[in-house]
Structures are given as structure tokens and as C-alpha cells.
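Q: What would this chain look like folded?
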Amino acid sequence: MSHHSPDNDARYPGDVIVNASFELTDDNEFVLEYRAYSTKPTWVNLTNQIYFNLAGHDTGATEMLNHVVSINAEYIWEANRLMIPTEHRITIEKSPFDLRQPRLLKEVFAKNPDMVGFDHNYCITKGEYQQDSFIARVLHPASGRILELYSNQPTVQFYTGNKLPVAPKNYKGDPKKLHTLVGKGLKNYNKHGVFCLSPQFYPDAPNHKDRVPHFLLNPGDIYYNTMRYKFFIQK
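A: My prediction, written as C-alpha cells:
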């Protein structure tokens, strides 16, 4: 697929062409690749927000919280009250966000009752000469399904569907104001019923150029983002 963003679209300089390719491999991988080209220096930072639930798309928060998650990162970017990252990188050691070792999401939520969920940007631990790096691993023990993610990007946004509609059985307000998100098979997708792992460059970097690594796409250069979601069954 391709997209043309004309010069000054949303105030971004340059005619930008984005090419996106999607591939299902014989090794049970879903591979996405983004490439972008610009006629003027401009900011580019592309990702996706694919929703996953390894227990099945209609199993909701009950099974989503039974996933075991590990992320290859020692730091996250601090976020303000609007969940916009600041310029401060903070260690996750001894915090609810420490997923260096596999952790059951249900236990993380139970130990931190004030936690509304994950919507945080993790700084991936990369080797000096690595291109594609191991990003994360997610296991649903009951089904044995496993997802591993690899990418060339330096960060990943981990999100647990915090802003999806509240499940009808948990809704306390006016029934006429109940919002729904209907998916496959006319099933409702509700809060904490999914997770996302979105590889990307450092978020909001142009607003913190002195403190945060940033990427400026210049004419003649190529923006390249690759991400590989690999699926298999635990034996």
C-alpha cells in the first residue's frame, strides 16, 4: 500500500510518500515494513496499533489479564497526565512497569489497584550492532499461544486497551450513553480486553530535541521501520 502526504499537510513540510507492505510467512510470522521518502526535511515516526488477545478475540478482559508479558527494556519514558511522554527516561526497576521478567498481567493489576493499565513507551535494550532486536514476548498459558515481536525500532508502546468501552456488565451510568465497539462476529470489544505492542522511534522527540534522540527524514534518505510478529504454540 502507498500514501502521498502533500507538502504542508497538517503543517508538515515536504511531499512525503509512504509505502507499507504486509506479509504472512510460512513461519507463522506477520511482517510489516514501512518506508518513507520526502522532498523536504520532515519528521516521520510510523507505527501501528494492532489489537491482540491470544485467548481469542471475544474472550475479553478476563483472559487478556491471564497473559504473561515480558518486554526487553530497562527504562520507560515518563508520561504526563495526558499520557504524553516527557524528556525524562526513568528506570523501571522495582516498579509496576518492570516486565524484564515474565509477569502475569492479572497479578500486576492486583498489586497496583490504582493502576488504570499500561499505555507506556519502553526503551528497548539493543546491542551496539543489532538491526532487528527482540522486543517482547507474550504467552497465554491456557491456550499455549505465544507472540514474539522483533523490530529495528528503539522503543515500543505497550497498551492494554484502557480507553476501550466499559463492558456492559460493569457499566454504572445511563444505558443510553453506553458506548460499544463491535468487532468480528458482532462481539463487543471492551476495556482491558486487548493489548498492543507498537514499535516506533522515540515519541514526541521533536519537542525535546536537546534531550531525546530524534529522527529527521531528509531528501534522498529513506525512513525504514520493520516489525515482525511471530506466533507459535508452547509445547
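The chain has a mean pLDDT of 92.
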